[in-house]
Design goal:
This protein is of the alpha/beta class and about 450 residues long. Helix 9 links the parallel strand 5 and strand 6. The chain is globular, with a radius of gyration of 23 Å.
């Protein structure tokens, strides 16, 4: 008698399929529970449920070239395979349980698209004008630090890809390439994101360097306080067997098992001294990227100093949006740092409406956080965002295949946006309005 009835084998096969899911695999708790369930599995008939086994094998496949990707999520496992564990942890991590990272993504599932019919969609215009500059697309590359940690091409490869595809870049303060080199690779200006540090003179020096290089906008980040508990990063550091001190010295922005940047062995000043944007700047008194004393008086002081456009990144409420406009800020970025700052569980797509209501069209509002599909871009535009940014996906492309991977990621987003614009009957970005979206019934 066969000791394993077909129903039992079916259940085990299904559990294995679930175990191959990137959603399950991304959760150590769920993946561990499945491993325990499968540990005692008996030998199975290979001819039984062959279609399910074939499906599992397809799910296990990792793309080996950019042209094999069907959507941007295909780049995530390829990048994870190529990037060292600690570096992957830095890219992937949220805070605490990573729940806000997931919430950002899930928020888009609560918005439905109302598609119109019988519209001539032969010509689709995806261009968007921001501060008088016309861009081919409303899709922006959000700031991500230390991109050479993912691939040798680093920020320069991303800049060259953005040049090829016509995208705006926000450049991180903690890059592994200078703004001058990035602008040269991009063939045009980029916006400079700003971590002002706790020392005014340091932040001001970065602003003036960026302005001199030709940056038309400074983007002040305000949502990353000291104490960002990045457990996924810390767990990844535990399994990375490399001698990281050979590259990083004795200091780390997020030291293993600790939660504060200023407590890093060797100090944050040692880290910043290796970053190109801090070349020639005295960072000996810097103890944090973002001073805990930062307030609206600082914004006023910065507004008086910055001669180009000034945006604030990290605004998620109507109260702060109103204050930003009152303090003369030129634009906002609705962002929760990709779920890397605090565990609020509130997706940025759900913060967007109240911020837009507060500014009343006085300044452009850009959104980032969880954007993984062209339909996500469409939904954010329909709700009123001026443009949409993302960080992790273009770094997945970079980590997996360098510049070619970034170009492929950007092309997929652009293709998907054009597709949903045609399907919904919107022939230009300006025609994507709130009439085209409704909340999903609860």
């Amino acid at each position: 008698m066969n000791p394993t009835p077909p129903l039992t084998k079916t259940r085990r096969k299904f559990l294995k399929l679930l175990g191959a899911s990137p959603v399950i695999a991304g959760s150590s708790m769920l993946a561990g529970g499945l491993a325990n369930l499968l540990h005692a599995a008996l030998p199975e008939d290979k001819h039984f449920l062959g279609w399910l086994e074939n499906l599992q094998q397809q799910g296990d496949a990792v793309i080996s070239s950019p042209d094999q990707a069907l959507d941007v999520m295909d780049f995530e496992p390829a990048a994870r395979k190529a990037i060292p564990p600690a570096h992957w942890g830095y890219l992937a991590t949220g805070v605490d349980d990573d729940a806000t990272v997931r919430a950002n993504r899930d928020g888009y599932s609560r918005v439905q698209i109302r598609a119109r019919r019988l519209v001539d969609v032969t010509t689709i215009d995806t261009s968007r004008t921001i501060f008088g500059t016309k861009w081919e697309t409303p899709i922006v590359l959000s700031p991500v630090g230390s991109q050479k940690a993912f691939h040798a091409d680093g920020e320069l490869g991303v800049a060259r890809a953005a040049k090829t595809k016509g995208h705006l870049i926000m450049l991180s303060t903690v890059t592994t390439a200078s703004i001058e080199d990035v602008i040269a690779a991009r063939g045009g200006p980029v916006w400079q994101q700003l971590y002002p540090t706790n020392v005014w003179e340091v932040g001001r020096a970065i602003v003036k360097r960026a302005e001199a290089a030709g940056a038309p906008a400074i983007v002040l980040t305000v949502d990353l306080q000291e104490g960002s508990n990045r457990e996924t990063l810390f767990r990844s550091q535990q399994v990375d067997k490399r001698q990281c001190s050979l590259c990083h010295g004795s200091a780390s922005l997020f030291p293993h098992g600790k939660q504060t940047a200023s407590s890093a062995s060797g100090g944050i000043a040692q880290i910043l001294s290796r970053k190109p944007m801090f070349d020639g700047i005295d960072v000996s008194k810097v103890t944090n990227l973002l001073a805990s004393s930062l307030n609206w008086d600082f914004v006023k002081r910065l507004r008086d100093t910055v001669t180009v456009k000034l945006l604030i990144k990290g605004i998620v409420t109507r109260e702060d949006a109103q204050l930003a406009v009152e303090h003369g800020v030129d634009g906002l970025v609705v962002s929760n740092h990709g779920g890397r700052a605090e565990e609020t569980l509130r997706p940025t797509i759900e913060s967007l409406p109240e911020v837009l209501e507060a500014v009343g069209g006085k300044v452009p509002v850009i959104l980032d956080g969880g954007v993984r599909r062209g339909t996500d871009v469409f939904k954010a535009l329909a709700l009123g965002a001026t443009a949409i940014g993302f960080g992790r996906p273009h770094c997945w492309g970079l980590g997996a295949f360098g510049q070619a991977g970034v170009e492929a990621v950007l092309e997929i987003y652009r293709r998907e946006l054009r597709t949903i614009m045609r399907q919904a009957g919107t022939t230009s970005v300006e025609k994507i309005t709130r009439d085209y979206v409704v909340p999903r019934p609860s």
